[in-house]
Amino acid sequence: MFLFTLYRILKFAIQGFWRNFWLSVVTISVIVLALVSINFLLILNVSANSAVEYVQDKIDISIYFKNDVDESIIIEAKNRIETLSQVEKIDYISKDRAIDDFRQKHKNDRFILEALEAAGENPLVGSLKIKSRNIDDYQMIMYFINSSKYDQYIYDKNFDDHKSFINQIHNISKIINTVGIIVVLIFVIISILIVFNTIRLTIYAHKDEIAVMKYVGASNFFITSPYFFEGILYSIISFVISIFIFYFLINSIQPITIKYFQGMIDIKAFISDNGLYIFGSEFIGTALLTVFASAIAIRRYLRV
User: Fold this and answer.
1) Among 140, 158, 176, where does a domain finish?
2) For the chain, which ranges sit under pLDDT 50?
């Protein structure tokens, strides 16, 4: 008996879906746009966070000492900076090592090597390369260096460009989040209104059937349930379509991110690890949204 009742309820729900087919298509389209917007925002957030991590892994502070600075002073500065809790690693590059690295890097450029030989003495200077534990620690390290006695022996530091680039990524990420949240909220509100209107029209189209069901003694549950199931049907169809669109976006974006960030950003791997939580949350949220809109319409327009 229960299965037969459930079958009748689902049948009425599907009939309501097809009876207002084009309105159902519009409803599904708006919900799909909301889900795609959420997923696209997710991709952008993952990419932005991965980009920051990628930049953080690549950058460091390079401190170049004046040519006449004694090596013992550079070693002393290294040992002092190394004691800072913010420093993860510090590497001293002597003048001899710097010239060897330079020759190795330009070993195929005959003109540069000839110019270097013509210069006679080693034109390069000793330097320190510092990597912090966290990206925010660089500011503290720079403050220590600038206020220390070793600052008088330094002629160049090259962290400012990195800091500017990192700040740009953070700012872009914040803008993406803000705009994305606004867009998603707009689509959610429109989705609620459209589902509400669709269920209202379905109730109006079934008013004669509802009157007959009430006359023959059908329960309130049997009369109202099809409209809740119709709302859930919208969410299921929208969810499935949005998944296909989402994976199409991933397959389009993935080669670009892998090429540009040298494999550091792997969106597919992120989705593989977190897909159940992400898609499960989206489906439950979509179902609750459509049920909520259906409940409002039923409460207002269906008298049982």
Assistant:
1) 158
2) none
